[in-house]
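Appendix B. Raw example, untouched.
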Amino acid sequence: MFGEFSVSYNGRFVNEHTRRSVKAWLILEYMIVFRGRDLPQEELIELLWGKGKDASFGALKTQIHRLRAELDKLLYPGEIIVNTHGSYALNRHIDCVIDADEFENICKKAFDSKDDDERLLLAKQATTIYRGGYLPHFSNETWVVPSNSYYKSLYEKIMVVGIDAASKLGLPLEVALLCEKALDIDPLNIDFHKTLLATYSNRGNLDKVTSHYHFIEEIFASKRGTLPPEDIRLLYGALSSESKTEAADFSTVMRTLNDDATSGAYCCSLDVFKSIVRVEQRQLKRSKRKVSLFLLTLTDLYGQQPDKLILRKAMERFSEVIRCSLRISDSFSMYSTSQYIVMLHDVSSENCAPILERLRKRYSIATVRGAEIFRYDLHVLPNADDIS
């Protein structure tokens, strides 16, 4: 029921890859969800063709025949689908083992247990059963949604139980493993991300702290078009600072600060970009230099945001175009899934046209179909002349 749906008997199995009829497979999944109940033909017809649709009992019988033919591959010595008084149901005399039931029983044992070793073992067992959403191919169906939410909630709870047990047992590797398993299912769960970052930090693995935080940035940018929440950004900053426990000599400090780039604009995270802008704003209060900000937005030919997959590829190419087209003193950052924000030093609004034209020409060469256009908004930071 979780992830890929399949049915097995004595080493033989049928699954969604061997099915010949989506409707027949839908009937089977529906029967398993509502096992123990006779399902009237009218209910199954509405399931397959919708309410008020013109479908006959004969059409339903055709789908039942296809389903039985598929299940015959299991060589089970008896009927799996039975017909009683015009209703269909799973044969109640078959002793079925269903992964959703096993998962629920494991969770209940873990929640009731007071033994940390047992709680951890049960949580790890749960990860081998819950391999994805409940009936994912029909997850939007009204009869699936409540169960899908219920089992996902159970999985999150048992991961919390397992992580708590592993922490009390002093097993950071098990904590990290369970966090990773939980994030495979829900990559936007901040609590698991925070626990994983702290675990890496406690083990002194700054590289993993950094790489995982960059992964968090990518996930939130691609899924939501936003930065990670502020609390996790603050946690990352704190963990990065705490990792430097010993005083360093100045040459070591300079090695960490040096930038070996010889050309191209500086691409940075949005938090870093904000810091650069704030420093510039302070400096411009006592300077007459010109600093311009551009917000560049990719769209399709109709001015709409492109499809996610197209947009991701287009943004990668656009990033390289921006980097190569601007000076080493300029900087830029992804602002959303379809936007970059750019800072140009010593460039007034009157001198922006040639730069934009260069960007446009180069992107036209590297463009991705479906994300052909970029539009821009310009803002010039006020300097000492403007303030006075």
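End of appendix B.
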